[in-house]
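Please, structure for the following, as tokens.
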Amino acid sequence: MTTIELTGRDRRQVEHVDAAVDAASHAYQTIWKHTQAATGQMLLSRLAELIEREAHTFATIHSVDGGMAYEDVKLFDVPQACETLRYFASAQRAMYERSTTLMEGGLLGKSLLGSVQRLCRGMRRCEFPFYLDSLAEGSTLIVKSPEFTPLYGQKLGQLVTEAGFGCERPHSPAAQPLDAAYSVPRQHRTLKRVTLGLGGKSPSIVFEDANLENALFWVSAGSSANNGQVYALGSRIYVQDSIYDKFVQGLAAHSYQKPAVMGDPLQNGVTKGPIVNKQQYERILSYMEKGRQEDARTIIGGSGKTQGSSGFVENTIFADVAEDSTIVKEEVFGPVATVHRFSTEEEVIAKANDIEYGLSAAVFTENVHRADRVAAALESGQSGFGRDLGKEALESWLSVKSVKYWSPNEKANL
């Protein structure tokens, strides 16, 4: 198996990281610190418009850079990115001030100001590069593209500049909190406030009262999206005893009725592109072989193949797998899942939570009370530190100030 060189990029050195930190710090001190919320809202909205304009370019880049099918990127990733940016643009205005009165008559009040953290900020991963939540709160940001898929971030940087996010020549140091999402923390000489998203081995739980057709669709999609190269992949599938056999048959039938079309991800009709690189392709195959060695039964897929310089892996699901087996406990980061039986709600919650890192989870049931109960019991959203998306992600870029004041109108009555 060989690889094709798409382009060349200089390997960044420590001094380049220092220069990026200096630039981010300088941009905060000279521009973003004094930027009004309305301006940030306008810039983020403008960036969303530019990304929509360049949807074809982003889809093409991700296809040749990471192997994801062109149509999937254009119809899902790009619209989701734009809606995310627009959410951050609209949400930021509501984040700055919350007040309460501490004593009757307003004699003593307390105002909580969501104050943007000083200077800048961190290195944001670029697998999903448009989650630029920190910019919504007036922070500056360093985007670090993955070494194997760097082109996304390069194009994003061009559009950020076009949108009007300005930056002058740096002159001051001092990095502040880091968001090194989807990486492992390394020892450092100083303490930083860190947001880290780590790996996942997420459960999908199918109860006997679930809508079977709906569950089959989402479980199949959730265990193979983007060639399984997704941290929130639903790679552990738990199915209640009474429907287990029917569900497993349905998974196999779904695979045969709607087989993945492997090939050039830029071509119409192709639904599965190649794995991102040779090392990952071989890693996925080694996990599949390990599963067979541990007596797992293959119900769909189970093999890989090469086409020219590219490596493809079939969507694969193993059954009859021990809970302590390697492919159940370790993240494969490929389209490989396992399916398991369970009898009771308590049993499946215990099994689902018996993992080192729980990033996400899915529950399929028609019983809303069960859904709420199980969702509350599942230990998901707990891989790493911090949050992505939503109000909580925005708040992670803020420091809360407690401001106490005397009311001028009441002071004379003391």
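The radius of gyration is 24 Å. The chain has two domains: 13-184+389-404, 202-377.
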